[in-house]
Amino acid sequence: MKRDLLTILDLSTEEILRLIDKAAKMKAELAAGCLPKTLQDKIVGLVFLKPSTRTRISFESAVLRLGGRAIFMTGQDTQISRHEPLADMARVLSRYIDAIVVRTFAHSDVEELARFASVPVVNALTDHSHPCQVLADLLTIREKRGSLKDLTVAWIGDGNNVANSWIKAAVRLDFSLNLACPAGYEPDSELVGQAARGTNGKIKVITDPVEAVASADVLYTDVWASMGQEEEAKVRLKAFKRYQINGHLLSCAPPHAIVLHCLPAHRGEEISSEVLEGPQAPVFDQAENRLHLQMALLDWLIGSKKL
Ligand code: CP
Ligand code: NVA
Question: Domains along the chain?
Answer without folding.
Answer: 8-129+287-302 (3.40.50.1370), 133-285 (3.40.50.1370)
